[in-house]
């Protein structure tokens, strides 16, 4: 199999652990193992006694039960655990897409959602664009239906979206599932940022609405536990899960036992962890809003309703790629330019989930002043 480079990961490969001021991260603030274990009496001792043998390919049954409990009426059997969300996407797309198939992906999107389609010979891929209406990011369901063909097998969506922050309302979730049902199309719903509803409207998991939908979840983003590398697919479509599990035999085989243990602790305190992440984002947003109010001639701010990321428009007369390069070279401030997403237009991604955002934002402002943009 030949597959194109993952642009975002290549970019992060250079800067994520070298740039001191991270202003574009999509995962929320993490914590130490000790901090997590301290959330539960007796967890530290149990962790030290965790057996380090192979684990079950489908995932620890207790973990699967906890994951199922996040959904409306899912059970342990509806859950397949992976080594991160990335492995789940790669496995699902590989088993679903074959020569002659057509897939549609919401766009922009996390690259792996559509890159497998690009790598399968004769597999066609269409982009369902999230568009900038001059004020905010919007989607058009008529445009989605117009893209559907007789051989459309999968529609891949990501909401809350990386990088735009666009998030379906519960009404739109039902509308999308109805479209897929009507055309009998599989729905891949990347919901890795779910749980970070800032507008107070708790979003439904899509797999609860449509049996041919898989919902993708993960410990990395809303829970801030990316180092655990634990993700999952949940669906009532067991035929698909059976195919994906066979593909997993060629990937990780099974998950890490310590990570599964720690994920169980985290999910037993799910509400507390989600609240922690939301509070960090909300505090950061107060500063970010002030920042954008100060510089309306430099940026067009795109507000978000959910999640940790936003995709703003650069109004400075300079390619955004150059602007972001200058920011990281001069001040060590990391932003993500739209060319990473193969997007037209001058946009850059900002991330609000880290505790270091106030300091990074101050450095970004220093950069604007020193480079005489203001
Ligand atoms: C939308 C989306 N899906 C999936 C992933 C992969 O998540 P993980 O790193 O936990 O495998 C990411 C990571 O950035 C993402 O943004």
UniProtKB/TrEMBL annotation:
CDD domains: AAT_like
Domain Aminotransferase class I/classII large, chain residue ranges per copy: 45-340
UniProt key word tRNA-binding: no
Sections of the chain in a coiled coil: none
GO terms of molecular function: pyridoxal phosphate binding; transaminase activity
Keywords carried by this UniProt record: Aminotransferase, Transferase
Keyword Nucleotidyltransferase carried by entry: no
Protein name: Aminotransferase class I/II-fold pyridoxal phosphate-dependent enzyme
Organism, as annotated: Aminipila terrae
